[in-house]
Specification:
globular
Length: 218
């Protein structure tokens, strides 16, 4: 994104979540399915580093830090409002020494400037691609800051092919309220981007196509 676009998107997200951030985790747990599966898929080795792109309230980072106690975690988000909630949650969880946050644009950020790190061993993108306008650029940026033998894990909305047609209509109307748009070309794009980077993409629908879980590694 250009600077003006980045600023505009940040302002949009701050506007959406200025109040929502206070009840985000309570409400989203019912329909952001597969997040814990994505966390489990990270499987970092001790002393490795994990970055979450679009960390929101810090929910995933805290859960992952508890699951993998010998790993350092980092998170970026474009919304300063969400980062305030994330920092508060991390402090309450006693994880300030293991989770470090910074504000950044998912499609264009410098990890060296933000964290003093060039590459990460694992990257998590949980229900962020459906919120990022240049979502393909965000995947490429993730791979740009991923170590050669690292793994990028993503989970997001999918085509709901195994669910009743009415549920897809209702979900779309709900997601539109929050500027969320499931990416119909996600599988193809992820596979093509992975191939262009000489990496392997594994993609699978979960919950009857409600969501998808993917990894890019190698």
């Amino acid at each position: 994104m250009e600077v003006s676009e980045t600023t505009s998107h940040a302002a949009l997200m701050d506007g959406v979540y200025a109040k929502q951030r206070h009840i985000y985790d309570l409400t989203r747990k019912y329909y952001l399915l597969g997040r814990d599966q994505a966390i489990a898929e990270l499987k970092p080795l001790p002393e490795q580093t994990v970055l979450e792109i679009g960390c929101g309230t810090g929910r995933n980072l805290i859960a992952a830090a508890r699951k993998f106690p010998q790993t350092m975690f980092y998170g970026i988000d474009i919304s300063s409002e969400m980062l305030m909630t994330a920092q508060s949650n991390i402090r309450k969880a006693g994880m300030e020494n293991r989770i470090i946050l910074a504000q950044g644009d998912a499609s264009a950020f410098d990890p060296k400037t933000l964290f003093g790190i060039n590459k990460f061993d694992r990257i998590l993108m949980s229900y962020t691609l459906s919120m990022i306008p240049p979502w393909e650029a965000a995947i490429r940026q993730g791979l740009e800051v991923l170590s050669r033998d690292g793994k990028l894990v993503f989970v997001d909305f999918w085509d709901q092919s195994g669910l009743p047609a009415w549920s897809k209509v209702l979900l779309k109307k709900w997601l539109d309220l929050f500027h969320v748009a499931p990416r119909e070309g996600l599988q193809k794009a992820a596979e093509e981007i992975a191939r262009s980077e000489n990496r392997t993409c594994n993609f699978k629908p979960i919950y009857r196509g409600y969501a998808c879980l993917g990894t890019i590694s190698g």
